Request: fold
Amino acid sequence: MPSIFKRINHWLHLWLGLLSGLVVFIVALTGAVYVFHQEIKDTLEPWRFVEAQDSAFVPPSCLIDTARKYVPHLEPTGLTYEDKEGAAAVGFISQQVGKIAFEVVFMNPYTGTFIKRQNVLGEGQFDFFHFIEDGHRHLWLPEKIGGKVVGIGVLLFLLISLSGLILWWPRKWNKQHLKRSLSIKRTSNSKRLLLDLHNVLGFYILLFGCVLAITGLVWSFDWFGNAFYYLSSGGETKPLHEHPHSDISQASRTNRDSIAAIDQAFFLTMSQEHNPQRIFINPSIHEEDEPIEIVVSLIKGKYYKHNEYFYDRYTLAPLRMKGDRFEEASFADKLDKMNYDIHTGAILGLPGKILAFIVSLIIASLPITGFLLWWNKQRVL
Reply:
């Protein structure tokens, strides 16, 4: 029976690997390239920074008015303040004939003065990291098709990892067998070296690779994300991502204050958050019951620890929802918020990103070494 089990396991490992190898290679390699995208952009795009000042930021309406002068044909879809040394930015997204255009206007957050207009996506524009992200998420295919292909490939990777662990498992747990299973013998012949590169490196990154795969699958399939939340919460259903609603019965009220509602909401939020590292505001409200939304990130370079503030668009009454403050959120909600930072390694800062980069490169190498092992065997046969 053990022999039959091993043969079946070996067969599954081989053919699932061959079936998903190209997908895993592309997803892992693009993931490795994307890990340091923000650091690279910060280095190559100096307009993202300003000189820190000991003064307050200008209100959102000032930035929106300035940005609209440079992009008058589109409605703003996002406004961000960074930390004290970061430029503020207003983004404009539009979709025409199935293509997305994205423009950003950078401004000084202390004065509201214009710094640069950047056409990130649009006719004749190419953004390298958007291209890499597109490949990572859906293989440069239509999103609905490519996303599912990536998800299935990553699911197969989890199964391959489990079967690989079974294949790696030493026959005896003694010094000799462990040394052979845990070390790469660089002086051996090319076939043995190839086997070591596949088996030993695969074992060392097994746990981290599975973490990257699981956090990726949370986005690929709703059923997977819901199941993961169910397990982490101890049996609770994952709530739908819905925001509170403004009271439309108050729509006829006249706001006699000369300060724009979005500015008032901004000032109310800043009175509660004294050291924000990033602030995101949705500057365009289209639905009657849609609230004013402000998201405040509390750690630079990380997204998980953030507080969400909602205000009634007519009365500016504060609105609350489950999990809107990180410290008050349940374990499952905190884990859900951490998903992106865990996936990119940012949860551990620079060391975590370096780890994610190395693990991703090794994962990308496994389909190659696995294929070469199979191909060499075919040639002998």
Summary: The mean pLDDT is 91.
